[in-house]
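#random but structural
TW: two for the price of one
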Amino acid sequence: MPRPARFIDIHVIQSVPFANLNRDDTNSVKTVQYGNAQRTRVSSQSWKRAAREKFQEEIGERALRTRRIGERVTRELAEARGWPLPLAERAGAHVAAGSSIKFELAKEKPREGAEGGTAKKDTKTVVPNKVFTNALVYVPETAVRELADIAEEHREKLESAKDIKKPADKSVLPQAAIDGVLKARNGVINLFGRMLAEVDDAGVDGAVQVAHAMTTHETDVEFDYFSAVDDISQEWNDATGSGHMGHGQYSAGTFYRFATLDLEELAGNLGDDPASVRELTGAFLATFVESLPGAKKNSTAPYTPPGLIHLAVRADRPLSFAAAFEKPVTSSRGQGFEEPSVARLTAYAAQANKMLGSRRLLTSGWTSIGHEDAKHVGDRYDGIEELVEATLLGALGEKTGEVSS
């Protein structure tokens, strides 16, 4: 009897031109040593965020990750509900201070010449009612309105309450009600998960796992010198030289990208809702494939499509093909790196599936641009939509959303 579907693996070969998709803290290209060769790398967090933003657009739901939830509630109360700003600020602070999460007050340096400006230069003053939670909260965007509703219900208490001025101050709002909102989920959170240990039962194990993307071949980091013209100086012709000079780091290459979706975890997060499992799975498969991090986009516009997309439905465990590129891909003259990368991936897939046993691989398929001879990765489809629909059918059966057995 065939085993039920458990994981959907996503393998992508994608060539990216001169770009810096994901910078480090010094604006440098991220790299990794793999197979004793330097590769350009894009972190999993960066590509996952790009996928999440596109996924939110696709399903029409958004999640909000912030330490400034109180300020967001303040804006809702003041701008959308007509509360006086001082009262709205107090309410927002009491919301942020009222959950199980510890909080701190924002601080700012006194302005020169302002009252108290004789204090030492580095002295910072507490800003009453500007409260940050110590941990990032990650909630459906609708939580802002729900938290504002709690403030509305307790407006009389807030009108007579004291401002939040120090960490020991207590909120007049009910902690259980606020925590209840912070525990709310939507499709984004059910898919990508949430870490929030401070609130009981708020954590959600993500159904998606994303690997760091890296080039299949050795790469060099290039420095790009640039200058900017001062338009007035040019017009008046009264000065020489540029108005600004600088440099940036970039690289180019063919990337191997991998992610996997745990159908069992997603179904557990959603409860008995096979239609939502199907909807969220299909949306993630498409949006992860099409997503691209946006760093330096205005000066590079690196919007290339993938050269090869391979989806595989597995019964027992995910299977990354990153080891196929432990030996860096090399290029013959005029060939480039994408074609040999596709050949390397498909050959490795055949060997890995043979070694592990074909019964673990339930269905697989692929689509590509210009790689007509891709082998060993299942059935060929004309485009992403057809490939995703066939994968959903293989993993979940007909549109009932039931897991095949």
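TW: number two ↓
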Amino acid sequence: MATPKPALWGATLAAVLLASTAQAATLTVNPGPDAQERLQTALLDAKPGDVVSLAAGRFDFTDGLSLDVDNVTVTGAGQGKTVLSFAGQKGAGEGLLITSDGVTVRDLTLQDSKGDGIKSKGADRISFVSLTVQWTGGPKETNGAYGVYPVSSTNVLIDKVTVRGASDAGIYVGQSKNIIVRNSLAEFNVAGIEIENSTDADVFDNVATHNTGGILVFDLPGLPVMGGHSTRIFRNKVVDNDTPNFAPKGNIVASVPVGVGIMLMANRDVHVFDNDISGNQTSAVMLVSFSRSFDDKSYNPLPRDIVVRDNRLGRNGWLPGLPGGKMLAAATGGSLPPILWDGVTTYPGYDGPAPRLYLKDGPVLNLNLPKAGEVEAAKPTVTATLGSPGLPERAAVVLPVGQDKPAS
């Protein structure tokens, strides 16, 4: 057979694209007594390119929902207009679980899931836009752990999201890569925003307020992905974080003292700049090492390659919720300096250099702990700043073309 001419190839490709576009559909689901079955059926039957549209109104569910189809948009009529209530959920799972790529969830409110609110697992190009996730009974240990929860995902966009009442973290990104969290509000959670065991994250233009801790960047041992690094935290308002810790006992965030603005633990290459940080009773910024035991010899429990510069700091540290915190505050003039570092520079089996830090926004309280957690052996010192410039600036996170469009 003769090879088609280029013009014919172009016509054939155009026809295929038109046919693909024509096949895309909008599947509309309205509230009603059988809405759960109709919505889950729509999520199962959706094809790539389809939109699953939830009308305005309240949807009452007794079970979680799931989506495993690529390139689907799930949209409501707007935050507070389309409300998905899981108050009657019988199981303990997520409200909505997504395990497919190219998915956008937007313009709706999700309430009172027994487990996490909205979770993506193993997804690429996952976008959460203009969402509210909340537990309407206020902060409680029995609330779900995470509000918006992408894990083991790549190219993550969280934009114009509000989360209230999560018993672990409101906005939590774990074991993921290439992340933007922006224009969002996290309040009345244990951790407002948390980046954990993840790489290349930009967290900016958010408000973290009335949480136990505002913004956390952690790296923990014993997880499938470790070695979190390269996070920028900038242009955020981290203010008045004053909610008592209500995390279940044993959770890592259960140890976060009330009133921490930004907390960095065992992570690498984190830059904190151009933020407004005030009204946090324990500390504006804390740098701490991981203090629990671990077996993985590749794990580094120290915060390192950290830059804290050019932030606007208000009143912080007047009532630190740390062991010996009142004595420390009294010894430093009635409140802790804005930056607190545990001062741990080594750990068993480590013989490398001390961590590189540039903490410009001092004074800096260095606890000089001999090892993580030994607060009673601290010999605190206060310095105007700590370290010197020289750590390279991080490049901005760039998402795939088409994903990083401003939320309307």
